[in-house]
């Protein structure tokens, strides 16, 4: 493991902090890696600064399990498609506690630290970089992708705790490598080989050539590209089946993409305005797609 970062810990809690993080370091070294180890230390340090600190009561082993379990939940460790992947039961066995003990302490950790999916301070960088929701912030009443903002605004967003780290800038006009047409499905493999910036640039260029306008074309193109990527993933996402159904209901392919994008935009808005209140955003998205109809989308204006 890489040398751990230093976090501020009250002198009175130093021994408890070290006892807890010795356990989390061991599990992360054996199973999860450096990113998880650092997040565990960060969470333990923040808990140690609470007054009174919950780490001052109970067993160190239980709190180590609770921290690991909570961070694993919000970073999808228990999802079989994640890398790394570890089941909740296996994680508890590695720590040496029952799943009930870990789960109870994890709830307390989540509540004390206000942990949620895509939390700007407690999301793995490797996960946040691939997730557009992690970068959505409110600017002048509009949701924007923080990566498209000037450097000084990206730095300010990070200092305010709105994004997980200061990302490199993203220019939606760079990286156009082929022609995209929303009325025709792109070949899934080449599309998925593009990085996110290239997909957004392709979609943005298509809309510009078509003369389409939106209040924020970069955000519109990003949502459109995300939907197209979900379609390209096929059966891995419910989006492809929804696209086919909407076309059968009378929408052309481009409008069907926009209809699905409206559901995605609504979910993104909820992720920003209802932080921590949506228990399972993936399931909510699936249910909203199931309720989406061509008639309803047309009526929405």
Description of the structure:
- With 301 residues, the chain is mostly helical.
- It folds into 2 domains: 11-115, Cyclin-like (Cyclin A, domain 1, Orthogonal Bundle); 171-299, no CATH class.
- It has helices at 14-32, 34-48, 60-74, 88-95, 99-113, 125-128, 151-159, 188-193, 196-210, 217-232, 239-248, 253-273, 281-291, 294-299, and strands at 136-139, 142-145.
- Strands 1-2 form a two-stranded antiparallel sheet.
- Helix 1 runs antiparallel to helix 2 (34-48) and helix 10 crosses helix 12.
- The longest helix has 21 residues, at 253-273.
- The N and C termini lie far apart (54 Å).
- Taken together, the total number of domains comes to 2
Continuous helix count: 14
Give, in order, the helices and strands: HHHHHHEEHHHHHHHH
- Class from helix and strand fractions: mainly alpha
Major sheet: arrangement of strands: 1-2
User: What level of helicity do the residues show?
Assistant: 55-70%
Low-pLDDT runs of 5+ residues are: 172-177
Subunit arrangement of the protein: single chain
Strand residues, percent: under 5%
Strand tally is: 2
What gap, in angstroms, lies between the N and C termini? 54 Å
* Shape descriptor: elongated
Mean pLDDT: 84
Largest sheet: 2 strands, antiparallel
Radius of gyration: 22 Å
